[in-house]
């Protein structure tokens, strides 16, 4: 029974998939570390606003919003930088590069003397995240088999959410100055792992004309050995030759990409869903709320400890993205997106009504309700809008412009990150928490209707097809 299970093509421990799984786990060490940097901020912001453990305090909403939103500016920078270097340097060198700004973040946190240190640190964290969100999905889509590609791509956000939970916990319970040296172990291990165990993607090597290296890389990621059955080897190498022919001739990927390539019918059909996907991902507030979760619970009317609630939400996030890794290649992307957008819209609407009611009535007996509603929001948001985001974004674009278009889309997404992180605390203060939640719910409800009508399923799509 176990042997039969391991032989299934979509089993991650299938012999053919093992090096793909190992690679995915190793490159996601930086995803976990990036998530720690995001989650650590939420409880730390509240500490820095009163009884600060360091030599300065955040004294205004302006400083709080800019500490949060500098991540967005850094993310745009990282998107553009890695997007422009990926085709020239290849995935492996870009994977190595993103560890540098992330390591500098924790060094700046340790030596922080003023809020400006946190501005620069969050900027560097954004550069790491922005680069990671481009190179990881594209690299994984190029080395993974089609029947497990969605699972591997969803592991990026699962790893980030594991890091966010760890960040919530250590930010709440550990001393400010001990955290940086603990976390720095992750990017160091990541650098060593990439250097020793990660090979360049065969698709990139074919594009730059290194065919013998590309074959070795292909054999490594598909776990093809000289001692294997000759029939299995020949079948695998036929797959490699088909890839080489498609990349060299069939899709014209060896030619320079021009503006005309972005004006084809398949390209135009991809732009609408991509834009709505970007809007839904950010203006649903899912990522923004993760950064300000402790403040949200503090203002919700609940009497439960905000930091405890935040840690519980971190665990719910992991559960949501784990469900994505299980279901993404079974149920497909579209169904998960529809369930996700509908669930987020309903949860945020209900959360808004609770906080509105709590302003004029005693709700002490129902202090658990904001936690339940926010848990629903985060769980349902992560099974689609977060967990499937990068998978869907990469897959909907035509093959020739895929890398460039996905890079540009993620730049737009990072710009939205900056806007939301900057305006969210201001909206909470000016509009109130209820109106802010209802606004996010409205955007998500619109996205549900759009996805229902226009979003195409891309499960099982070949990365050599439009």
What would you note in describing this structure?
The chain contains 22 helices and no strands. With 466 residues, the protein is an all-alpha fold. It has a single domain, classed as Growth Hormone, Chain: A. Helix 4 runs antiparallel to helix 5 and helix 7 runs antiparallel to helix 21. The protein is globular and about 75 Å long. Keywords: Cell membrane, Membrane, Transmembrane, Transmembrane helix. Its main location: membrane.
Number of domains: 1
Full CATH superfamily name = MFS general substrate transporter like domains
- SSE string: HHHHHHHHHHHHHHHHHHHHHH
Distance between the ends: 38 Å
- Over all CA atoms, what is the radius of gyration? 22 Å
**How many strand elements?**
0
Descriptive tags:
Growth Hormone, Chain: A; 466 residues; 0% strand; globular; mainly alpha
